[in-house]
Amino acid sequence: MIVRDYKDQFNMFDNMAIWAISSMEEFFTSHQQMEEIFAAEYGFSYSSRNEQAEKFIDTDIMMVSRLLDLFGDKHFFVFSENDAQHIILKELQDKKLISFGMDIYVLKPNHIYVLEMDKTKDLQKYDN
What we know:
By secondary structure, the chain is an alpha+beta fold. It has five helices and three strands. It has a domain at 6-23 and 59-127. The chain is globular and about 50 Å long. The mean pLDDT is 88.
């Protein structure tokens, strides 16, 4: 599930990990089920997306977000260098509200990043 309003809800998640997607080909080869999910969601195979240009208007980051949103057991926050989502993460790091295990300022251009996390089981955080 794609997380919205992460800036206000970051404390509701734990078990965080950030992974980088260097290319869409790498994304699909490292996650084999994504080919099937893509075909079910878009109605054609990922390999034939160039022939389906009139149907395929999503950017790479939109496609990753759309596909990951179909996973109900994990939560995701998709970002790339200096986009609005990345700015939120930099603010959270600067305020020392969250540590990502890496310097969130140091990203590779042209990569898509995914913050993968679980909804917290700490019921006290629901009261904040």
